TrEMBL record:
Enzyme class: transferase
UniProt biased composition (Basic and acidic residues): 25-37
Keyword Transmembrane helix: no
PANTHER family membership: METHYLTRANSFERASE-RELATED (PTHR22809), TRNA N(3)-METHYLCYTIDINE METHYLTRANSFERASE METTL2 (PTHR22809:SF11)
UniProt protein name: tRNA N(3)-methylcytidine methyltransferase
Gene Ontology molecular functions: tRNA (cytidine-3-)-methyltransferase activity
Length: 366
């Protein structure tokens, strides 16, 4: 177990009783593999009669009520012992410093390759097809290249260019020094997604201009921003995208085990924490993300009112700059079979489209 896990949390997740669905299958082991071939996420439903320890992950499992109550208690404790003002300033004033330290310590061996990308975001399969024509993909907060490299490995499009940007110069160095770094299809650059234009310099990444990007990939980057930086990042992304351009989003969801197990002295503000290594993490909620993207305008900025949320359907009627094509929670129960722990994970996944441009094909927006 990670070092920051409390005994209380550990004891609790040993006793977790996940809800099960009514059984829809026979339990004949010959046809009860819960696997599709090739394997696809989302097919392992935990049903009555299943042995929860049979697999190491189950899909779409909502936390049980007892766990939700436990999570609320944990949040109360976290709020009661927040980060000191001194530390909050240290971590918020120079976040790149902490990510630089992270990549100095971990180089490229921390994050796993995101091999599921093209399955989850079909548009990535489209832009990498042989005859897809000129396509510009920007990955923001690209880290050690765990998304960009698999994308390029599977690419057949001679005219694909992937800009992999990160504000950590060490992350960029790791990407540039990798054997997989292929200059024909990839360029790694230092760029702060929350940069603001100044008189001396624009806030866009090197080599990219306004309206030049087809697809923006945001994988576990928005959670690393302070909520007061979201508007600046959205502004840059909006400017960079072509009309009709797409944003692919995946990040931590509210109630994920990583949030529930935070101990004392890590809470910065609601749903926003600092890890032991000085890097920050936010946990997103469905309605918040829908409003954040669907309600944003260059004039008014972020429009998030969780007391009176504007629905996806209402936002779809507006002519706001981004349409929310999809926003969903990917929930899994992860099972540690040897220590008999059952842990609820939750990630948010979204697909947004900048207004204008040709109508998207259904394939790319599924
Ligand atoms: C959790 S890591 C995810 C890395 C990568 N996207 C992946 O999924 O493997 C977050 C990354 O965002 C980068 N990052 C954080 N704030 C950023 C900012 N303001 N601009 C650009 N990159 C940032 C960090 O340096 C780090 O590499």
């Amino acid at each position: 177990m990670p070092a920051n896990n409390s005994k209380e949390y550990h004891d609790f997740i040993q006793k977790v009783q996940p809800p099960v669905m009514p059984s829809t299958r026979s339990h004949d082991p010959d046809n009860n593999q819960k696997r599709t071939d090739p394997f696809q996420f989302g097919s392992r439903f935990l049903e009555e009669g299943d042995n929860v320890y049979e697999f190491n992950a189950w899909d779409h499992v909502e936390p049980d009520d007892e766990f939700k109550a436990f999570a609320e208690q944990q949040y109360e404790k976290q709020r009661a012992s927040r980060v000191s003002d001194f530390d909050r300033n240290r971590f918020n004033n120079d976040p790149a410093k902490w990510w630089n330290l992270f990549y100095k310590n971990n180089t490229d061996n921390f994050f796993k390759d995101r091999k599921w990308l093209q399955q989850e975001f079909p548009i990535l399969a489209e832009v990498t097809k042989k005859d897809a024509g000129p396509q510009v993909v920007l990955e923001v907060g690209a880290g050690a290249g765990n998304t960009a490299f698999p994308l390029i490995r599977n690419n057949e499009n001679d005219q694909l260019k992937v800009h992999a940007c990160d504000f950590s110069k060490y992350a960029v160095q790791v990407m540039r020094e990798s054997d997989q770094y292929n200059e024909k299809h990839m360029v790694a650059d230092v760029w702060d997604a929350a940069a603001e234009p100044t008189e001396e310099a624009d806030s866009l990444p090197p080599g990219l201009t306004e309206g030049s990007v087809d697809v923006v990939i945001l994988i576990f980057i928005f959670s690393a921003l302070n909520p007061n930086q979201w508007d600046k990042a959205l502004r840059n992304i909006y400017r960079l995208l072509k009309p009709g351009g797409t944003v692919l989003f995946r990040d931590y969801g509210r109630g994920d085990l990583a949030q529930v197990r935070f101990k004392k002295g890590r809470y910065m503000e609601e749903n926003f924490y600092v890890r032991g290594d000085g890097t920050r993490v936010y946990f997103f909620d469905h309605d918040e993300l829908v409003q954040m993207w669907g309600g944003w305008t260059p004039e008014k900025g972020m429009q998030i009112d969780l007391e009176n949320p504007v629905s996806e359907a209402q936002l779809a009627e507006t002519d706001n700059p981004f349409k929310v094509l999809h926003m969903g929670a990917d929930r899994r129960l992860i099972v540690n079979r040897s220590s008999k722990l059952k842990m609820y994970r939750c990630w948010m996944q979204g697909l947004f489209r900048k207004h204008g441009g040709p109508e998207p094909t259904t394939e790319s927006t599924e």
